Amino acid sequence: MITSSEKIFSSTSALVVIFSTARKIIWVNDAFEKNLGYATSQLIKIDRWPFFAASYQEQFLSIIRKVLSGNPQESFNTPVTCLNNKIKTIRWSTLLISNNESPQQNLVIAFGVEIKSPEKNIDSNIIDEGYRIFFENMGTSIMFIREDMTIDIVNKEFEKLTGYAKARIEGKMKWTEFIADTDTLESMKKYHWRRRIDPGLAPDSYDAKIRRRDGTIRDALFCVTMIPDTTYSLASLVDITERKQMEEKLRENDQLFRNITENAIDTIYIITPDGNFSYMSPAWLDLIGEPAIQAIGKSFIPYIHPDDVQKYQELLQYILKSGERATSMEFRILHCDESVRWISSVVSAARDDKGNIVKYLGIARDITDQKTAEKKSKHS
User: Fold this and answer.
1) Which of 22, 204, 230, 265 is most buried as measured by Cβ atoms within 10 A of its Cβ?
2) What is the dihedral of CA 323, 328, 329, 333, to 10 degrees?
3) How many domains in the chain?
4) How many CA atoms lie within 13 A of 216 on its CB side?
């Protein structure tokens, strides 16, 4: 992979540094050596980079770590020290190159341009066969875009994602033809032009819906970076359709839960492992005489009759230790009008993958009238 990248990036006057998943320098291009004085052989076996002050190296390593974690980063500037001790200011952009079949082979490519003046001479003679070799085997959909929005190069993953063959795309189609939503398309067009004025004027990543050749719509995460000293940009696309569908399903479930709880006669509540309410349904107002929102963040203890607090705590401990999903009990609570009410509550535990309790879910019903009737029946 590094042999291919040498062919690709040696043709640009921008500084190019390639990092491994271990955040080690594994290659720099000729422009890097020419401008800073350091060759690949001088950098691949050292942890302390001589061209950065320690604080800037830490900043750079932190950014690489975030990029490797799938969090695109905005362009940033750092001073660098050349081998001849000359100080230059470099503007860096980063790009994650993913290998889905072997994530340990993921790479972060950092492009650097010296900041001298607002205007720079652009060398557009950057496209060569090396790009095809390099990107063809990437596990992420990638396209190489001209200033006029025409797509120059795509890889196999892009073909799979869109359903179009390279011969139909390269040099013939614009990326705009794939965007399904009109409003998103207009925003992305603005990003396209702003990025070519100053990469900092446009976001590096965003979601968009794309239309495949068969007419189906997919959600994709776009990550875009400029190739320094050119008017070309590189865009990687990750299919996030399943993630979006899951998020939508979670939103639907959350809405369904709220519709049920907010219209339920019984009071539904959630207690954190440390004993505080994190959710309370509106029926709490009828049960206790207090708006539900006022209970959030408070401990359950002040609401329970002092003689029953230990009994309720023991119930939670029993659920914790026994592993039972749900247990019910009757106990007294203190109404805001200072009266004592009897309730019957079913409590269950929600656990994480490791079996740890993350919250308790309870349903409470006022049984004061039932208790009063039972007491009268006993004395009659």
Assistant:
1) 204
2) 100
3) 3
4) 11
H helical segments located in the chain: 2-9, 30-36, 40-43, 54-68, 129-136, 156-162, 166-169, 182-197, 241-262, 284-288, 309-322, 368-379
pTM here is 0.47
CA distance 344 to 362: 10
By C-alpha distance, which of 332, 329, 335, 334 is closest to 314? Answer: 329
Q: What is the pLDDT of residues 133-176, one digit of tens each?
A: 656 766 789 999 998 899 988 899 999 999 999 999 999 999 99
Whether 135 maps to a domain, the answer reads no
The answer to whether 267 and 361 have CB atoms below 8 angstroms apart is no
pLDDT digits (tens, 9 = 90+) for 267-296: 999 999 999 999 999 999 999 999 999 999
Domain containing residue 289: 261-379
CA dist., res. 373 & res. 170, Å (int) = 82
**Residue 131 belongs to some domain of the structure:** no
Are residue 152 and residue 86 in the same domain, yes or no? no
User: Residue 342's domain is classified under what CATH number?
Assistant: 3.30.450.20
Instruction: Using the 3D structure, point to which of 117, 150, 183 is the last residue of a domain.
Output: 117
Residue 349, helix vs strand vs coil: strand
> Residue 6 domain-assigned?
yes
